[in-house]
């Protein structure tokens, strides 16, 4: 049973779940070759398989390199583990003082109400936590984490992540929101989710009402390709915007999915202009196991974001970051435009590639 079972839900999103891939055995219903199906089943043993019908419907099955397919259909390349890859690439467990919570930076915590998702992305850096833990939401499971937040007045932001928090029923979301907003020092509720992308019909009025209360709500979506932006995702984002939520997006740079300037340019423009979602981060691939086939080099990523910076307005440009191993945090990787310095004169490369001098003039 999954968190997604709830008799009160709107039938269209329940249908999307019911008619999608929910188990490895459902791969048999997809137009894969016998060899592909066998390989997919082997890879699925390492990371769960799930995708709603609405998302599967975006796949062009005639294209073996389809960017939507690449994100959800298990690949035999996932079985190739490379030395140096990590089970917990950003050290969530090391910075976890109590179950279901990670406290890496003073003013914010990650809270994991569930380890289940509406979709299992093949590139997920938490895939080993999702596979090995596999637990859903219960009130009791969150008590130690909520007590920890209440005991730490330096915490201003609570980030619901997982697993996907929006895979939970409205009632559970309302309960969690109420418990967090009862802690007076918490100012912001942040929700990291793929649901508006893969199951947009789930963004109902009941869901947004469950999240509305005292706290400012920021929803960080996870679109990786402009093909994921549809009439349904547009409606979902409009519903959240009209509820007063701030919408940001984080993408992962994935070889064979979005590692071209044209694809990223279209994605960022459509996010901002069509969905009203600010492109926030473009993540360089972390060291999740079995993902070498989807990572680019950092130099390739820098060249892409340099080209994007010249093509897109500031509001459409994401920040290219790497979430460092050992809990080092997110650091910007964008190419540095500073070419040199002579005292108070700085040589800085402009968007046209020409280097100009900027002399610092400040009063004593
Ligand atoms: S929805 Fe998020 S947590 Fe779940 S598999 Fe995808 S990336 Fe990982």
Nutshell version of this structure?
By secondary structure, the protein is α/β, with parallel strands linked by helices.
Key features?
binds iron/sulfur cluster, 12 helices, single chain, 364 residues, TIM Barrel, 3-stranded antiparallel sheet, alpha/beta, 3 domains, 30% helix
Description of the structure:
With 364 residues, the protein is of the alpha/beta class. It contains 12 helices and 12 strands. It has helices at 11-18, 34-44, 53-56, 69-72, 127-133, 139-150, 170-181, 195-198, 205-211, 231-242, 261-275, 298-311, and strands spanning 101-105, 108-111, 157-160, 188-192, 216-221, 246-252, 278-283, 319-324, 329-332, 338-342, 345-349, 355-359. It has a 9-stranded mixed β-sheet with strand order 1-2-3-4-5-6-7-8-9. The chain has a 3-stranded antiparallel β-sheet with strand order 10-11-12, with no helix packed on it. The longest helix has 15 residues, at 261-275. The chain is globular. The N and C termini lie far apart (68 Å). The mean pLDDT is 93. The structure holds iron/sulfur cluster (SF4). Residues 117, 119-121, 124, 126, 162-164, 194 line the site of iron/sulfur cluster.
